[in-house]
């Protein structure tokens, strides 16, 4: 199952530790904020990606299942619409 | 308004100078809304009409309503987006001020269609006439509509009208965009499925509920059907809000605004998240969001702003970039620093004090900010900058090299 | 169990805990001010901070368990959990209990950071600045070796390290960029766009 890296740009505070741990996929822009290569993470880099996600002091980085694998939107059941 | 009578839909009726249309005149002209039972079945009609959102993204309205309806347990919220923070756009405030009942009809239809028990009219606080008109229009309505509808003053600011910003403001009083797992249609105001829809989109939806999707599709010259409001401004004798058929060319809009001959040389289409083009290259191009030609001009929120030959493109760009940088919600590093750097560099270029590689660096920065914020604010600014660098390329080169502005025919600053 | 061994273990583990806790505080400050050197990248500071914090929990547990189990000290489990409930130097021992309680909150919220959310995590983490001086005071007031010269030396070194770190933190100001200030500086005089319509 392919995973992608997702960055929360509001939480991100430019610590740059993710780029240190995953230089193959993450570089820093002119102001110290991460630029993440799009697309699924190669298997050989998955452990490094997890470490990068763990180290972020502000939890701005997340590993997410690739869109194709995400669950579809819930369908209202006969018992009552939605789980709201 | 000089649009042909048959194609004036939102703006049909009494002239705008007469103020807001009252409920009795509105009903006399258009009749009553279809009954509630029929309104619940309206989503397929909207999907069939092909109505696209008018907030700038041109997202299919029917599909949006379906997404909210599927998640609603009768507790959804309709946010009527009349924030209109785009400085060169006036269509939303004109619509709210002159045809508030069209907007209210659309909101009521939307609420019944998606299963909403609350309607919030989110009106830019600087649009006083619109507030007054909507307030009075609401007071004319039935008690059950008044009971579930409220008017909220949206803060002044470019990003306050962004969908997640509107929801965030209604939830917390903070009108800054958010970056949450769940989109507004899943969990928005009060964690309930929320429909955020532009006032013009809702006005059309209300008319479609009355007249049907075939009626709506009967106008339009190209792939995108229907009509839309455009705000014409800039170096034009007759600025204002007009209703045009999709597919109308920019040349026709220029004529509508009274432009003849060499009055204008460049045009800004779509707003600050749109782009510049030279008038010559787009005279024959249609205003159509679906136009996918390589030299397409986009449509955005219907801003058509003409620049005369006396406008320095570099200075105009510097002013817009400074505005966009100052309007950042200040939440994301790349947007804040990138737009600030771009604004500073374009200002230096405008006054002829450019550093050696300023021009090269702005292009690089524009590429670095796009797509890296929580909302599309930096993307819009970057897109506009790219189009300005292309359209005013000679001007920029002159400012970078010699500090002479061909427009002012003098040394810059 | 030989009560002497337990007593030595309590004292030894307590001193090691203090040293490790001091290192954790210093490393925490270094993380937040984004310190780095050519051969020491920033992620290393963050990871070592976490590793030593977890290590210090081990020594802290040893310190508490050996103290409670030691029949000579006659401390019940209650006095290890409820502050100021011991019969032996209740005040100074109690400070240690409060310090541990705060530390447990910090550790638990850190381990469950993704669940509790950043705001809660951050608020609780500030309690570490209160926990450390309480631990130090506990050692000075309730520690058997507190008056020994070498122990005074250790205490002084720890105080020096933490005071230096805290000063560094205060002088660094806001380590993260003040984004609203940058935007406000642009906005001065430029927020009204000349092409705007009435």
Secondary structure blueprint with pairings:
The complex is a heterotrimer of chains A (84), B (413) and C (198).
Chain A (H helix, E strand, L loop, with lengths): L2 E5 L9 H5 L4 E3 L5 E3 L9 H10 L5 E5 L19
Antiparallel strand pairs in A: 1-4, 2-3
Chain B lengths: L22 H8 L5 H4 L3 H7 L11 H11 L4 E7 L8 H8 L1 H15 L1 E9 L3 H12 L3 H5 L1 E6 L8 H10 L21 E5 H13 L1 H5 L9 E8 L5 E6 L4 H7 L9 E4 L5 E4 H4 L20 E5 L5 H14 L6 H18 L7 H12 L7 H15 L1 H9 L2 E2 L4 E2 L2
Parallel strand pairs in B: 1-2, 1-4, 2-3, 5-9
Antiparallel strand pairs in B: 5-6, 7-8, 7-9, 10-11
Helix pairs in contact in B: 3-4, 5-6, 5-7, 6-10, 14-15, 14-17, 15-16, 15-17, 16-17
Chain C lengths: L2 H30 L9 H28 L7 H5 L8 H22 L1 H4 L1 H8 L2 H15 L6 H24 L6 H9 L11
Helix pairs in contact in C: 1-2, 1-7, 1-8, 4-6, 4-7
Task: Based on the model shown, name its key terms.
heterotrimer; B: 413 residues; alpha/beta; Ubiquitin-like (UB roll); de novo design (two linked rop proteins); 3 domains; 4-stranded parallel β-sheet; 18 helices; globular; C: 198 residues; mainly alpha
Question: Which chains share the greatest interface?
Answer: A-B, 21 and 27 residues
Q: What's the assembly state of these chains? A: heterotrimer
Sequence of secondary-structure elements of chain A? EHEEHE
Helix content of chain B: 40-55%
Q: Radius of gyration of chain A, Cα only, in angstroms?
A: 16 Å
Helices and strands of chain B, in N-to-C order?
Answer: HHHHEHHEHHEHEHHEEHEEHEHHHHHEE
Mean pLDDT of chain A comes to 82
CATH class of the largest domain in chain B equals Alpha Beta
Could you tell me the strand content of chain B as a percent range? 5-15%
> Residue-averaged pLDDT of chain B, rounded?
91
Number of strands of chain B: 11
Cα Rg of chain B: 22 Å
Q: How many angstroms separate the termini of chain A?
A: 30 Å
Shape of chain B: globular
Percent in helix of chain A: 10-25%
CATH homology group of the largest domain in chain B: NADH-ubiquinone oxidoreductase 51kDa subunit
Number of domains of chain B: 3
What is the third-level CATH name, the topology of chain A? Alpha-Beta Plaits
N-to-C CA distance of chain B: 41 Å
Shape descriptor of chain A: globular
Poorly predicted regions of chain A are: 69-84
């Amino acid at each position: 199952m392919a995973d992608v890296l997702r960055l929360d740009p509001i939480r991100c505070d430019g610590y740059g530790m993710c780029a240190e741990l995953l230089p193959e996929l993450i570089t820093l822009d002119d102001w110290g904020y991460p630029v993440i290569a799009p697309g699924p993470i190669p298997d050989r880099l998955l452990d490094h990606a997890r470490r990068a996600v763990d180290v972020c002091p502000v939890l701005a980085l997340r590993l997410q299942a690739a869109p194709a694998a995400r669950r579809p939107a819930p369908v209202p059941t006969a018992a009552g619409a939605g789980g709201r | 308004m000089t649009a042909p009578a048959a194609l004036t839909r939102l703006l049909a009726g009494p002239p705008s100078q007469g103020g807001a249309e009252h409920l009795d005149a509105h009903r006399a002209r258009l009749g009553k809304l279809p009954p509630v039972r029929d309104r619940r079945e309206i989503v397929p009609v909207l999907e069939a009409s092909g109505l696209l959102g008018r907030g700038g993204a041109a997202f299919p309205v029917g599909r949006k309503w379906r997404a909210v309806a599927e998640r609603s347990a009768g507790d959804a919220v309709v946010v009527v987006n009349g924030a209109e923070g785009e400085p060169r756009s006036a269509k939303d405030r004109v619509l709210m001020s002159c045809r508030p009942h069209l907007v209210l009809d659309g909101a009521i239809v939307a609420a019944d269609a998606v299963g909403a028990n609350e309607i919030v009219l989110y009106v830019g606080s600087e649009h006083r006439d619109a507030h007054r008109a909507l307030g009075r229009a609401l007071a004319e309505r039935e008690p059950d509509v008044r009971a579930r509808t409220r008017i909220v003053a949206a803060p002044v600011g470019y990003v306050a009208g962004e969908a997640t910003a509107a929801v965030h403001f209604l939830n917390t009083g903070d009108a800054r965009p958010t970056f949450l797992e769940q989109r507004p249609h899943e969990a928005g105001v009060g964690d309930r499925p929320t429909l955020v829809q532009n006032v013009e989109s809702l006005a059309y939806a209300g008319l479609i509920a009355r007249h049907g999707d075939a009626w709506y599709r009967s106008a339009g010259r190209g792939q995108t059907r229907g009509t839309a409001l455009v705000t014409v401004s800039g170096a034009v004798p007759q600025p204002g809000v007009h209703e045009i058929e999709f597919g109308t060319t920019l040349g026709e809009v220029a004529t509508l605004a009274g432009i003849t001959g060499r009055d204008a040389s460049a045009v800004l289409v779509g707003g600050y998240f749109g782009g510049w083009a030279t008038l010559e290259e787009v005279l024959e191009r249609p205003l159509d969001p679906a136009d996918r030609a390589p030299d397409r001009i986009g449509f955005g929120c219907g801003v058509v702003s003409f620049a005369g030959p006396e406008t320095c493109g570099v200075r105009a760009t510097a002013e817009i970039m400074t505005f966009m940088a100052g309007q950042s919600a200040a939440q994301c590093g790349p947007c804040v620093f990138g737009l600030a750097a771009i604004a500073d560099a374009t200002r230096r270029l405008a006054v002829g004090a450019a550093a050696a590689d300023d021009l090269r660096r702005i292009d690089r920065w524009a590429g670095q900010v796009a797509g890296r914020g929580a909302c599309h604010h930096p993307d819009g600014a970057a897109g506009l900058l790219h189009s300005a660098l292309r359209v005013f390329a000679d001007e920029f080169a002159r400012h970078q090299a010699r500090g002479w502005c061909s427009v002012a025919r003098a040394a810059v600053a | 169990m030989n009560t002497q061994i337990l007593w030595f273990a309590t004292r030894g583990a307590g001193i090691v805990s203090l040293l490790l806790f001091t290192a954790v505080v210093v490393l925490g400050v270094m993380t937040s001010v984004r310190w780095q050197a050519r051969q020491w990248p920033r992620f290393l500071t963050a990871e070592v901070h976490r590793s030593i914090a977890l290590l210090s929990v081990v020594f802290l547990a040893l310190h508490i368990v050996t103290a409670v189990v030691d029949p000579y000290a006659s401390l019940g489990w209650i006095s290890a959990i409820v502050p100021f409930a011991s019969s032996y130097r209740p005040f100074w021992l109690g400070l240690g209990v409060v310090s541990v309680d705060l530390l447990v909150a910090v550790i638990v919220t850190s381990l469950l950071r993704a669940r509790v959310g950043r705001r809660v995590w951050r608020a609780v983490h500030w309690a570490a600045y209160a926990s450390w001086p309480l631990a130090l005071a506990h050692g000075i007031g309730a520690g058997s070796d507190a008056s020994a010269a070498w122990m005074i030396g250790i205490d002084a070194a720890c105080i020096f390290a933490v005071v230096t770190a805290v000063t560094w933190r205060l002088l660094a100001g806001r380590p993260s960029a003040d984004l609203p200030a940058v935007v406000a500086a642009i906005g001065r005089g430029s927020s009204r766009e000349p092409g705007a319509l009435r």
